[in-house]
TrEMBL record:
Compartments (UniProt record): Secreted
InterPro entries assigned: Pepsin-like_plant (IPR034161), PEPTIDASE_A1 (IPR033121), Peptidase_aspartic_dom_sf (IPR021109), Plant_Aspart_Prot_A1 (IPR051708), TAXi_C (IPR032799), TAXi_N (IPR032861)
Organism field: Phaseolus vulgaris
A molecular function (GO) term: aspartic-type endopeptidase activity
SUPFAM superfamilies for this protein: Acid proteases
GO biological process, one term: proteolysis
Name by which UniProt lists this protein: Nodulin 41
TM segment ranges: none
One GO term describing the cellular component: extracellular region
Signal peptide extent: 1-22
Amino acid sequence: MKPFVFFCLAFYSVSSLFSTEANESPSGFTVDLIHRDSPLSPFYNPSLTPSQRIINAALRSISRLNRVSNLLDQNNKLPQSVLILHNGEYLMRFYIGTPPVERLATADTGSDLIWVQCSPCASCFPQSTPLFQPLKSSTFMPTTCRSQPCTLLLPEQKGCGKSGECIYTYKYGDQYSFSEGLLSTETLRFDSQGGVQTVAFPNSFFGCGLYNNITVFPSYKLTGIMGLGAGPLSLVSQIGDQIGHKFSYCLLPLGSTSTSKLKFGNESIITGEGVVSTPMIIKPWLPTYYFLNLEAVTVAQKTVPTGSTDGNVIIDSGTLLTYLGESFYYNFAASLQESLAVELVQDVLSPLPFCFPYRDNFVFPEIAFQFTGARVSLKPANLFVMTEDRNTVCLMIAPSSVSGISIFGSFSQIDFQVEYDLEGKKVSFQPTDCSKV
């Protein structure tokens, strides 16, 4: 048992006296999503060019894909206990405890547990703000080993302290990152509608991390993870009954000086012209991720089929690039090159593999992703980026190095409202000017 467990005993005895407030949560609310490279982000580097930011984001996408690859077994399946952590593309602010303490976390559709670093910490990675101090919060409460939230952890993820407190252990797929501490309940608050109102969710499960090492966080500004995945301990699963098990986001183009929007409940529902829906598939060997089934991609009048029927692509807001299985990607790329009638150039925006000289009279072909029951037509702005000198255009789709893992990334989702209906088990798309949402 690690040394931090002895700290847990003090937490458990003191916090067991605390009470919690009544739950009066709304049926819908909206929070800001901050792109990590936008001027509103603490990671913003004004000295970087747009191309350099694209390259850095592409490298982050590759790093995340490689972490998945490192964990695949001979059957190309991940054990249920494996978690994939990455520093993400979007950040969100929230408040924890009473009185509330502001935290900045990665908003991650590929994670479930919400966790922050807590004091007294046996071993924590550096952060620029003080650690969360649970003994100063009147609403903090650790859970017991026999409690319902503790049963949601897999056997290898949970342990019991000497006073019966539930201890979680999350090990992430890069082999070095982990978080360990008390599975607890606390009040979480969010600024909604640009801070016009605050919404509160008492008794929310979270990890009070007392022994942490996270290698992928890029600076001391991040203090934890806000899980938005399909797992039972994620935010969207915990507050599912209050939000109708629905959430959506609308992602702004890169370089925008505003924030994208993440909506929950009634505010997340998309209706009207242009809405298409496809089944959401949850796989037991990657239970946190949202899978869709991509049947084909059309380039102009040519259709490139995938031959898949069982969910072959993860939809992920935390990965910039879209990744396609290698053989399928090269068939698609060949059709695209033929339609564009161009010769490819190398090492322009490495690691993007498909780049070509730009001409003013270019007519880009119509490209659509045909998911089961939903044809999603992508604009050139969802597919290509241009270098600063306007001489070269590069495709934001790359071949996946991981057999059986494809990703529909955030660049392809820009200026779409994307709704996740966990109860109805579907994902819906609607072309939208996200600056007006």
